[in-house]
Fold each of these.
Amino acid sequence: MLKDDNRKVMLDKFMKEHNYEESSLLEILHKAQDIYGFLGKNIFTYVANALQLPPSHVVGVATFYSFFKLKAPGEHVVTGCLGTACYVKAVDDIMTAIEQDFDVKRGGSTADSKLSLFITRCIGACAMAPNIIVDDEVIGKATKEIVLERVRLALEGGHRS
Ligand code: FES
């Protein structure tokens, strides 16, 4: 199940604009990846339900195309918004701090698979820039200190809720 947040609102709006048509599946998956940074099981299920398609079909289409990021995310997922509003508010500095502190690269996971780091291009919350999402919690007006602490707590806390 996708969390009820701005990202889901954006995806819903996009699917509605495309009349939930199967012929728009590729565009919808592109949009979902833009919004969430990667495509995971819950996104496939959600899109499949909305378009009334078997989830296996949606997964099959996504795995066929190399431009989709299907890498199994780590136990915890951090996504930084690198859209314009967040970028000018120095989100890149926070991303770099995460990379350095946790030894992880954008688009990848830590060696122990506990943390994955992704990017998105706008989650529709520009007024709260810079935005970083830690395990589905959108942190607006994020600072390096707040985000690093939140990621540390997530890693110490174990599994994602
Ligand atoms: S650019 Fe980050 S929320 Fe819009």
Amino acid sequence: MGLEEKLPAGVLLTSVEKVVNWSRKSSLWPATFGLACCAIEMMAAGGGRYDLARFGMEVFRPSPRQADLMIVAGRVSQKMAPVLRQIYDQMPEPKWVIAMGVCASSGGMFNNYAIVQGVDHIVPVDMYLPGCPPRPEMLIDAILKLHDKIMDEPLGVNARRRDLPGYEPRKQVASSQRFTKEGKQAHRVALQKELMR
Ligand code: SF4
């Protein structure tokens, strides 16, 4: 027998954490920008056929100050990296990042000096979405999984703040070293450190 059974109808018991997280996940506003071909699929997800509006997040914002979700749709060139980081810094906390597609997640087939080998070298990524390109359904699935993640985020002193000095993005491993034994080992160690955080 729970306390709920003693309550009159119309009274709901919950925690502040759940209410805050629920309101945050129900009103994610993505920043409007696309970097390459994946952006076409992202635009399709917002169109009438796939209808992101069902999840209260069709309002793509042209100003990063009004956005709390960054969808990195496409490969990130070295030249674009500081711009992307600046947009991320201009977004208010709390904010989340989805790496959409294999290029944004790991550099994909562009294993060369011009392309950043994974956007997690620049900003912290919450959700990696595989595929080339991922279909709009996959993007919507990633967003729904991000909703679940947001629902479990602690608040207050236990909150995981990514703008604190302790946070370090993954170290760049030069593409020429990524397929050597030492390069792979360095890459693995960096990933493990990230997971242990
Ligand atoms: S993952 Fe494929 S579709 Fe997306 S940016 Fe890279 S090449 Fe283009």
